[in-house]
User: Fold Transcriptional regulator, PAS and GerE domains from Hamiltonella defensa subsp. Acyrthosiphon pisum.
Amino acid sequence: MNEHQNPESKKLTRDFLGKISMVAMMEHSKMPWGIRDNQSRMVYINQASMDFLNIPRGFDFEGRSDEEFPCPWSELADEFRAHDRKAEANEGAEVICTSYYGREAKLEPYYAPKFPIYDDEGRVLGTFFYAKKFSFISINDFFSHLKPSVLTLDPPVDIFTEKELDIIFYAFQKLSLKDIATKLCLSHRTVENRLQGIYDKIKVNSLEGLIEYCHATGLDRHVPKKWLREGVEFFW
Assistant:
């Protein structure tokens, strides 16, 4: 029996992992995968990612920054770079990217986590990512501006509790206190008290002040992970 036929000859062990090429794994995947260097220049993308990103066939992508791609999502270059840096600094970052994807150029959201790539001495060389389509529970409940965007599952500031972030998420959509209370299964008074606590933390005294704060810090693009689930059709 030759090596290819012997199931023990290529048994997956820790030692054997060092012989497996990351690119070979990506190359055979039907899921979009890609690798970027620590300057956010594209190093590698598989065929599934070429189709997903709607990159023209024959386009030389290697070494190019996002804004150099002839694709609608290139307008999000600054936000992509920011998330690359966050992934490199925090051992990964989870983002939601919404733009015109696929060969049919449909306006859709994709979950795209990124992870740092290290050399043998622990230095960050760049990031790798994959993309997977998903849906929100209800687009009408959450967003009123239908445009390409990048959302993050990781809050850009760390001064709020998870419960406060839930309040901020709905308050930013300008839901009434009563509606927020209903969605979170809380009393009107509890929501009112938590919202006041949020105002005190950021030194504002109105919803308008909170909304301005969200725009300034990036909280306007934050979505609590608990509100996401797969299996619901959603086009943005």
Q: What stands out?
A: The radius of gyration is 21 Å. The domain at 162-217 is CATH 1.10.10.10 (Arc Repressor Mutant, subunit A).
